[in-house]
Amino acid sequence: MKESTSLRPRAAGFSIDRGDTGVLLIHGYSGSPTELRELGDYLAARGYSVAAPLLSGHGAGPDALFEVGWQRWLADALIELAWLRRRCRRVVVLGFSMGALLASVLVARVPVAGVILAAPALRLRGQPLIDYADVAARIQPWYYPLRHANFGDPAVRAAVLGFAPEIDLDDPAVVAQVRQAARVPIGSIYEMVRLQRRARRDLPHIHAPALVMQGRADLTVNPASAKQVHRLLGSQDKQLIWFEHSGHQLPREAEKEQVWQATATWIAAR
Fold this sequence. Notes:
Blueprint: E1 14-16, E2 21-26, H1 37-45, E3 49-52, H2 70-87, E4 90-96, H3 98-107, E5 114-118, H4 127-130, H5 133-136, E6 142-143, H6 154-163, H7 172-181, E7 184-185, H8 186-202, E8 210-215, H9 224-232, E9 238-243, H10 256-269
Parallel strand pairs: 2-3, 2-4, 4-5, 5-8, 8-9
Antiparallel strand pairs: 1-3, 6-7
Helix pairs in contact: 2-3, 3-8
């Protein structure tokens, strides 16, 4: 009997001890540190120490996200930040998607050398519906993000294969399974809504140098939110970089090497 398709991430947190400048990497909602592994290796090869925690409720089956609040995700990030601060003279925090929201809340409270917000999920596509996730959860407990996905899209394929690299996305039966297997609890999505609200309040209190990076073709985050994040930041030294041919998975898509280089160049300049 053929095994059913699993979308459980094959990843855990990672750390690489190199130089005296550290970079904390925070992954996105329902993702894993795999999203940032190539970027972490790129930075480590250039002498930076890196640490990427696996956030609570992630890296296991979707049931693990039930009743996990955003404060636990923030606590996970703070533990890795403390590890880096013990080893490094200066630390930069980089957050991707929801991780960018966590980075904003963290940096508003803890002094760091800089913060990088990649595809910050301050406002998602379909945000008006997401804002009512707490109500929707009482009616329908699960959300199926890939139910209507285009599996011919390289970004979609890269995201799925990051979770389960062994599956055959050219097999229609496998794709049908993936559409059903990829699910997240709607109540957990509301934790991201709460985090969005917290980050929006905290952005004006960030004064560390800040870089915002955003793909023009992002179908998950409304690209306009990058402009809002840049405007709300209290930092005097702040920059917004657009990637014209990238979607949501900035660190892993067609312009990924430009994203890695922009990250390293920005850190080196500060």
